[in-house]
Amino acid sequence: MAQVHPYLFRGPRPTDLKALQALGFKRVISLQSGVEDKYTDSLIEEQSKRPQDFGIEYHFIKCRNWLPPRDDQVSYVMSILAGWDADVKTYIHCHSGVDRTGFMCAVYRMQIQGWSFVRAYDEWKKEGRHWWFFWWKPFLKRWRNRLVE
Predict the structure, then answer these.
(1) Most buried of 48, 62, 83, 88 (most Cβ within 10 A)?
(2) Could you report the per-residue pLDDT of 54-63, keeping only the tens digit for each?
(3) Averaged pLDDT score across all residues of the chain
(4) What is the distance of C-alpha 31 from the center of its chain?
């Protein structure tokens, strides 16, 4: 788990919403593809069907595994993060927490925090982006000066 902002954290797919609740998280943004729901029978998949039991606002944005997030998905996540209450501790994740999650965090850095493309892209790589997603760079670059709707 890595801290992006005082109330925004990123990482891999959690295993237990109760553990996130104990850490003070009030919001989860899942960028998974949905494959995990079909092929695993884990606790988190069951809990995500009833996040209100844990006092967690749960956003599932079904992102593809091998293609970059679509523009509408990026805009939706940015609208959540741009409009949040400063004290709503949020956890954003995909499966491993580095590719889709890193992409969204890089857009957040540029759009919300005003970072340069180079700085945001370098952080994405440093945080563990898998090398084979190098081809997502132009998709990220498009968000550099773009306004979030």
Answers:
(1) 48
(2) 889 999 999 9
(3) 87
(4) 6
Cβ proximity of 93 and 31 under 8 Å: yes
pLDDT digits (tens, 9 = 90+) for 3-14: 999 999 999 988
- Say which residues have a Cβ less than 8 Å from residue 105's Cβ, sequence separation at least 6: 4, 10, 92, 123, 124, 127
What CATH number is given to the structural domain containing 91?
Answer: 3.90.190.10
State how many domains the chain has.
Answer: 1
- What is the DSSP pairing of strand 90-93 with strand 8-11? parallel
Cα separation, 23 vs 148, whole angstroms: 30
139: left (phi over 0), alpha (psi -120 to 50) or beta: alpha
Angle at which helix 100-111 crosses helix 71-82, to 10 degrees, equals 60
Q: Is 146 part of a structural domain of the chain?
A: no
